[in-house]
Design a protein that fits this description.
The complex is a heterodimer of chains A (314) and B (427). Chain A has 14 helices and no strands. Chain A is mostly helical. In chain B, strands 1, 2, 3, 6, 11, 12 and 13 form a seven-stranded mixed sheet that branches. Chain B has a four-stranded mixed sheet with strand order 8-9-7-10, with helices on both faces. Classes of the chains: A mainly alpha (314), B alpha/beta (427). Chains A and B meet through α3 and α13 of A and α1, α3, α4, α17 and α19 of B.
């Protein structure tokens, strides 16, 4: 990021007189670059190098049998990925997973934020309680949900039975397992959207609502014509970020599906994990990761462009 | 201009220096730990070995105490012990050996050997360890660490086989056959009261593998191709199918925690589990008995998988002094004294022949019966392909539990899946 932002802030040439008087503090064309060198070095080491390494790895056949001396095999791994029909099914499932989660995150988050943003008894306590899912270590939270989803002893099926419905095979049927994962992840993810929305809501000037009141606007009209447009610059980047996180969310499905080897619950990233760490197909897993990276890069740039979300609204 | 250039340059120099110093520090360390191999001064030259393990953290003090004593005996050898979790140990070892480094000795479950050997990360031990020393160890478990005839691990413990555990208050005498077991289980099942006859982690085929093993089933042929669509595995799936759908002696969705908790609360008459869990049951106040896995239709006892844990040596250890030091350390880990300490702490059976005959091992009722179970057990294959087998066997378990597919169909699907998974390994 810092590397990009500096290009736009190239300094203008300083007058010659200043140069002579204050030689040591003179700003040269390269001075700003000197300031950002440490940042560039860190970016190079932490981001660029692993990325290049990953791309290089994706062109090799590094696996269990070719671990110490992998060979460059060109695009074979990519060809294998794109000719495997399962890739497209998993990709579709990943999109469904991401869409279901992020839309629920935004809807629930925004709804709760709107509730909290008005005068309410014990507001701060409610806020703390609502942030809890976010504060809890994810691993522990998912393990707890794993217990809740148990067919016979889980709280969810006990509730279902109590209200006269039949218990559901949450963890043994792939479709239910996938739904269980979405429920868990919605629970884990809504506090973030709620906090972001709450911040956005509090920055909306009250004058706008007062003016709308004078014009006789209903509360839905106020929400639609003031709140939503004013929240857009906050919500769009947050939703983009949320989509990227959710797309690459390994923990939830990995833990909930620990008793299943059924590929019908996998999303792309859990498939990569399995290929890389259970089957030692490092080259293939790297190629898969590059594909995921490209998908996400394409998504993020086009989504933000389409929403024009980062533009100022006032 | 010149002055400022100098300033900026010097700033850069500082940065560069900082990085290179960090890099140098590492090199100096390496140089210090790899003494030049001049045979004349070999004996006294200090050797620093690094040893990675994934032992229960509670048992780590045993290592530390015995290694300190070892250091008194051989002052020139220092062993640094580093603890890892099982998964981290495996991935970290791969990464560091790939980079030309890594620990000298690595300890872990024997299925690591298959992975490390296939990747070429560890060296054969036949030349490192003497034949005399290897003769002090149980031949069956040493042979279990051989791959294509070469020894890749020195096992210091064995067993870990699952047994039939029963609540003596509910089941006075342990069942001898599967039919008896199911009869007893039926009597002790009352779903309305939440009581069940037989529980275990039903999702992991590991816990029913004793059926196919006992009936003479093999997961692989000699070329490590899967052989799962066979009568033995159909019988294994049938056992699972029947207890869930016909006899109904096990709760639906019976995973590890459900099974363990039911048994600890006295609500399950029998459980199938390994030595790692027995202490927990006793601590919960259960009047616990251990028995053989029951006899199958062919009159043989159920044959649980047995495994070992073993020490392997990094392929990057080539220096004769280091190899000599490694040998001494492995001899310590192979000694009866060391193994007995660990047997008492971990519940694993020793591999040292003297330790195996020790009065503690012989007289302890739990050890005694577990050893009997080990004798009729089946060594678990250590090749990496085993992973593909487990995934394949596991695939249809939920559908078997809910009665959606027949045992025959399940075996057929497992075979197909295993073939696909093994092909993935070989790509």
């Amino acid at each position: 990021m810092s590397a990009v932002s500096t290009k736009t802030s190239k300094p203008t040439k300083t007058p010659r007189i200043d140069n002579i008087r204050n030689r040591n503090l003179a700003i040269k064309w390269w001075t700003p670059y000197m300031f950002i060198i440490p940042a560039i070095l860190i970016v190079l080491l932490m981001v660029i190098y692993p990325l290049v390494f990953g791309v290089r790895l994706s062109l090799t056949n590094m696996n269990l049998r070719n671990f110490l001396n992998p060979k460059i095999i060109g695009l074979d791994n990519y060809i294998e990925i794109f000719t495997d029909p399962e890739f497209y099914i998993t990709f579709g499932r990943t999109i469904l997973w991401t869409f279901a989660n992020v839309s629920m995150h935004v809807v629930i988050g925004l709804w709760l934020a709107t509730l909290i943003n008005r005068k309410l008894m014990g507001k701060s306590l409610i806020r703390v309680l609502l942030i809890l899912p976010w504060a809890m270590p994810e691993y522990i939270a998912v393990l707890t949900w794993f217990g809740l989803f148990n067919y016979q002893y889980g709280a969810i099926n006990i509730l279902l039975r109590a209200i006269g419905l039949s218990a559901l095979p949450w963890l043994s049927n792939p479709n239910f397992l996938f739904s269980a994962a979405i429920i868990t992840n919605v629970w884990l993810g809504f506090p973030f959207m709620m906090m972001v929305s709450l911040g956005g809501l509090q920055s909306i000037p009250t004058e706008l609502y007062e003016a709308a009141d004078i014009d006789g606007a209903s509360s839905w009209q106020k929400f639609k014509n003031i709140t939503l447009p004013m929240l857009k610059p906050v919500l769009v980047p947050a939703a983009t970020l949320g989509a990227v996180w959710t797309f690459n969310k390994l923990n939830v499905i990995y833990i909930l599906a620990k008793n299943s080897s059924d590929s019908r619950v996998h999303i792309l990233v859990t498939k990569v994990y399995r290929a890389g760490f259970d089957y030692y197909r490092y080259g293939y897993a790297a190629a898969f990761s590059v594909v995921i990276f490209l998908i996400l890069a394409l998504f993020a740039s086009s989504f933000i462009k389409a929403m024009k979300g980062t533009e100022e609204v006032y | 201009m010149k002055k400022s250039t100098i300033k900026v340059l010097s700033l850069l120099m500082v940065l560069v220096l900082m990085f290179s110093m960090a890099a140098c520090a590492k090199k100096v360390e390496e140089a210090a730990s790899t003494p030049d191999a001049t045979p004349t001064e070999a004996a006294k030259k200090p050797v620093e070995l690094v040893f990675w393990e994934q032992e229960e953290p509670n048992n780590d003090p045993i290592y530390d105490r015995l290694l300190t004593e070892f250091n008194k005996k051989y002052p020139h050898i220092t062993v640094t012990r580093v603890h890892y979790t099982t998964d981290d140990l495996r991935s970290q070892f791969q990464t560091t050996v790939l980079a030309g480094e890594g620990p000298d000795i690595v300890f872990g479950p024997d299925d690591n050997l298959g992975v490390f050997q296939t990747m070429g990360l560890i060296q054969p031990l036949d030349k490192v360890l003497s034949a005399d020393f290897l003769n002090t160890l149980d031949k069956k478990s040493v042979d279990g660490c051989r791959i294509s005839g070469d020894l890749y691990g020195m096992p210091d413990r064995q067993g870990n086989n699952i047994m039939l555990v029963y609540n003596k208050d509910l089941v006075p005498t342990a069942p001898e056959t599967v039919t008896e077991m199911i009869e007893i289980a039926k009597k002790n099942t009352n779903a309305k009261e939440g009581k069940y006859g037989l529980v275990f982690q039903a999702y992991e085929p590991f816990f029913i593998s004793w059926v196919a093993n006992g009936l003479g089933g093999n997961v692989f042929d000699e070329k490590y191709q899967p052989t799962l669509n066979t009568p033995a595995f159909i019988a294994e799936y049938k056992f699972l199918y029947d207890i869930f759908n016909v006899h109904k002696i096990i709760p639906a969705d019976c995973n590890y925690d459900v099974a363990s908790n039911l048994f600890k609360e006295g609500k399950a008459a029998m459980i199938i589990n390994g030595p790692w869990s027995w202490g927990e049951y006793e601590a919960a106040g259960i009047n616990m008995g251990l028995a053989h896995l029951p006899k199958l239709e062919n009159g043989k006892y159920g044959s649980a998988y047995t495994s070992t844990k073993a020490y392997s040596v990094n392929k990057n250890v080539t220096d004769p002094d280091r190899l000599e030091a490694v040998k001494l350390v492995l001899e310590l880990f192979g000694s009866a004294e060391f193994q007995l300490e660990f047997a008492k702490a971990s519940g694993w059976m020793p591999t040292n022949k003297v330790a195996m005959e020790d009065s503690f091992v012989k007289n302890d009722p739990k050890f005694n019966i577990a050893t009997e179970g080990m004798k009729v057990g089946t060594p678990m294959p250590i090749v990496p392909e085993m992973r593909a087998i487990w995934d394949a066997l596991k695939l249809t378990v939920p559908d078997i539990m809910t009665g959606k597919i027949t045992p025959e169909k399940a075996a057929e699907m497992a075979q197909k899946e295993a073939e696909k998974n093994i092909a993935n390994f070989n790509k």
